[in-house]
Amino acid sequence: MLISNTCMCSESPEDNCYGECWDLAFDEFAIQTEPLFKDNQVNFFIEGFPVWNGTRRGGFEASNARELIGQITPPRTEWSLTYSVEGEVLTGTLSHHDGSGVITVTKRL
């Protein structure tokens, strides 16, 4: 699956992905990540977040898909995420202006 904050799904490319295009991509992300929120679990751990000088890892909280996407993507820049969810693990390739790399998001016990 692919989600991005830039859109190419309208007749002309948009700088930011809002409206129906974003809604469709985000709705699919929410459906795919639903298993991550079983049992009201909100503590997660991300590994491999790409930054200009390598990768970062750390814990965060998210109680729904909107909070999750905000935690696993960079703020104030264009990004794209190709992802899959298997069981309670999200893996994907995150690309943005500082780099790209494979991320893994797991629930913390």
SSE inventory with pairings:
Blueprint: E1 2-4, H1 19-33, E2 43-51, E3 54-61, H2 65-72, E4 79-86, E5 89-96, E6 99-107
Description:
The protein has 109 residues and is of the alpha+beta class. The chain has a domain at 35-109. It is 21% helix and 41% strand. It has helices at 19-33, 65-72, and strands at residues 2-4, 43-51, 54-61, 79-86, 89-96, 99-107. It has a six-stranded antiparallel β-sheet, with helices on one face. The longest helix has 15 residues, at 19-33. The chain is globular, with a radius of gyration of 14 Å. The relative contact order is 0.22.
Question: Brief overview, please?
Answer:
By secondary structure, this protein is an alpha+beta fold. Helices cover 21% and strands 41% of the residues. The chain has a domain at 35-109.
- Overall structural class, as computed from helix and strand content, comes to alpha+beta
**Spatial strand order of the main sheet:** 1-4-5-6-2-3
Terminus-to-terminus distance: 27 Å
CA-based gyration radius: 14 Å
Percentage of residues in strands: 35-45%
List keywords for this structure.
single chain, 109 residues, alpha+beta, 6-stranded antiparallel sheet, globular
